[in-house]
Amino acid sequence: MKRGGASMRLAGLVKKEFLQIVRDPSSIAIAFVMPIFLLILFGYGVSLDADHVPVALVAESHSADTADFFASLEASHYFAPIRMTSMAEADVALRQGRVNAIVHLRENFAERLRRPNGAPIQVIVNGVDANTARLAQGYVTGAWGAWLTRWAGQRGMDLITPVQLQQRVWFNSELRSRNYLVPGLVAIIMTLIGALLTALVMAREWERGTMEALLVTPATMNEILLGKLFAYFALGTGGMLLTVGLAVGLFDVPLRGSFWVLWVCASLFLLAALGMGLTISTLARNQFVAGQIAIIATFLPAFLLSGFIFDIDSMPPGVQVVTHVIVARYFVAIVQTLFLAGDVWSVVLPNALALVLMAAIFLGITWHKSRKRLD
Questions:
Q1: 42 near 208, Cβ under 8 Å?
Q2: How far apart are CA 106 and CA 60, in angstroms?
């Protein structure tokens, strides 16, 4: 009877949590509306690619060679060229931010092109945005090399270079930042659902007095926590499925790994996130305080220090050490690998074990700190 009574109490608590979720518009919004908003924002509005870079083209004298080189830049989707008559005009445009770079061909360009030493071109790049500046510089260098090769081939000449670069891009051959960003959003969204939403809901129950009503029932504290875990685990799984479905169906992000491996790893991460939310709820019984702690301790680290946008290897050594305590770091590594590279077990297994450890730590803290009392 005791075992049957415990099962009935747990089923009732799970039902109660689902009814509370359905009646609370904010829970539905965070679980299902927020993922759609974030996916649209990062899928369409945020891009780390530098396409259609405005570039000023200046030639001191016009010839068939200058026209051909400028035409090759105009045909590339990487550039949005603007032809200008003088360096003074181009300099003003660069200072005003109307262009990000200047490509300058000197007066004797065509003549020097046929000399053994070749014809240098001048490229001036606006370095305010270092990332865009490096990309623009690389694009111009690549376009210059491609044009020289074609120009020499049309004249039956061999372009002599000491090193021949044969480039091959693995895993994201289109070089689309969307393929890199959208999978990482799965971790961010599940952090919102698991940690932020759980912390807020628990704090809300303390504020409204419904937690006190639960404490006077025969249900144990373990059953109360399990009821919340089951309900919000199901909610988080729904948010994950929605995010993955939109990533693959709407944004054409390839899922090269196994969906079931992704589901298992997402479940481990969701348990860790729920553990973080429940841990926060044991420290703060006020919604405002719980929300602030959840954002500072879970969402911001997941956004900035997980490798979602910024490469961890490029961070200072001290910050790299700190990232090892960020739960989202391990799941971001897994999800980006599964989407773009496939089932690379040397990446998946160590990070999955780290998620198991993190989930055990946070759920253990919650179980240790949670007592069926008001103090």
A1: no
A2: 5
